[in-house]
């Protein structure tokens, strides 16, 4: 991977040749020269493998990371709603569907006795979780997602130039962002349209969340495999969620413990998204600390 370094020497000599080594090549960012290994000397074109990374310490990066971490509130809300359950039988995570916790009315639904007095809390949690995913997808750029998990990468403020913006890593990161946003939109729909409203949008929203969320984690986990130990965890979360979704589709959820199967679809997505937020938040905090120390030493 190539990392741009600011040109701090004098002005380039006549003919466009600057004071560079024979193994160092030139790229152009605006009006000043930048150097990166692996480019043709004296050229102003960026090689296909080069990439100019954005400012990871920006406020939007911190907010985006925290937005992803916020999905963990779901587990707290679910536990509280289960504690308030008022059905004839105690609610069980092994047999009870997640959506039953957000049902508006008490009574029989699909052959199940459903009564969730704290349904507003559950549905609000769905919406907040979805908003966290959507906000994270919007604020965390594709170039940032490529390098945020890789320690030691020098980050500079700027735009991804030329053909580098279409590199495999950037495309994968863009796909992960799109899928994460889609999954977030799905769980927002789940919260706004509870299961007992009779609308097909609830099922559609749930499928959006499970399918897009699992695929997002698979793509992001693959992207971060060599960047962070959590890359494996994120990849595993996506694989478990997708496998459970396929099993649920093949069986029609007619299994001894449908609640367990549904949670194998949903819980890994929440954990994987939160893990991604943690990785990025740690990188942002580290970058800010380094810059703060550098400013203090410069005084």
Give descriptors for this structure.
two-stranded antiparallel sheet, disordered N terminus, mainly alpha, 2 domains, three-stranded antiparallel sheet, 299 residues
Give a quick precis of the structure.
By secondary structure, the chain is mainly alpha-helical. It contains 8 helices and 5 strands, in the order βββααββαααααα.
Structural overview:
- The chain has 299 residues and is mainly α.
- The protein folds into two domains: 1-50, no CATH class; 59-149 and 165-280, no CATH class.
- Helix content is 54%, strand content 7%.
- It is built from eight helices and five strands.
- The protein has helices spanning 59-69, 73-83, 119-139, 142-147, 168-192, 201-223, 230-251, 258-298; strands at 5-6, 24-29, 32-37, 107-109, 112-114.
- The strands form two sheets. Strands 1-3-2 form a three-stranded antiparallel beta sheet, with no helix packed on it. It has a two-stranded antiparallel ribbon with strand order 4-5.
- Strand 4 and strand 5 form a beta hairpin.
- Helix 5 (168-192) packs antiparallel against helix 6.
- The protein is elongated.
- The two termini are 33 Å apart.
- The model is unreliable at 1-52 and 154-166 (pLDDT under 50).
How far do the termini sit from each other?
33 Å
Shape: elongated
Helicity range = 40-55%
Order of adjacent strands in the largest pleated sheet: 1-3-2
Q: Mean pLDDT score, rounded?
A: 81
- Poorly predicted spans: 1-52, 154-166
Structural class: mainly alpha
Question: How many domains is the backbone divided into?
Answer: 2
Q: What summary fits the major beta sheet?
A: 3 strands, antiparallel
- Sheet-strand content, in percent, reads 5-15%
User: Compute the gyration radius: what is it?
Assistant: 24 Å
Task: Count the DSSP helices.
Answer: 8
């Amino acid at each position: 991977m190539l990392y741009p370094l600011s040109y701090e020497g004098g002005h380039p000599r006549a003919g466009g040749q600057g004071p560079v080594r024979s193994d160092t090549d030139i790229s152009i960012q605006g009006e000043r020269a930048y150097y990166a290994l692996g480019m043709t000397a004296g050229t102003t074109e960026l090689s296909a493998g080069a990439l100019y990374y954005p400012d990871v310490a920006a406020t939007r990066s911190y907010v985006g990371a925290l937005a992803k971490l916020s999905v963990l509130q779901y587990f707290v809300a679910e536990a509280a709603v289960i504690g308030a359950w008022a059905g004839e039988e105690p609610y069980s995570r092994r047999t009870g569907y997640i959506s039953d916790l957000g049902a508006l009315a008490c009574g029989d639904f699909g052959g199940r006795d459903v009564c969730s007095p704290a349904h507003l809390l559950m549905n609000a949690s769905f919406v907040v979780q979805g908003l966290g995913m959507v906000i994270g997808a919007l604020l965390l750029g594709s170039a940032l997602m490529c390098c945020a998990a890789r320690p030691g990468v020098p980050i500079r403020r700027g735009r991804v130039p030329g053909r580098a913006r279409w590199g495999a890593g950037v495309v994968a990161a863009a796909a992960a962002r799109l899928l994460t946003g889609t999954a977030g939109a799905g769980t927002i729909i789940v919260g706004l349209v509870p299961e007992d409203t009779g609308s097909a949008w609830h099922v559609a929203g749930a499928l959006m969340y499970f399918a897009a969320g699992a695929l997002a984690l698979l793509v992001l986990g693959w992207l971060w495999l060599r960047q962070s130990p959590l890359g494996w965890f994120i990849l595993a979360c996506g694989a478990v969620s997708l496998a459970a979704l396929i099993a649920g589709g093949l069986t029609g959820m007619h299994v001894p413990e449908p609640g367990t199967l549904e949670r194998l679809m949903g819980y890994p997505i929440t954990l994987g998204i939160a893990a991604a937020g943690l990785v990025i938040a740690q990188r942002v905090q580290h970058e800010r600390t380094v810059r703060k120390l550098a400013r203090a030493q410069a005084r």
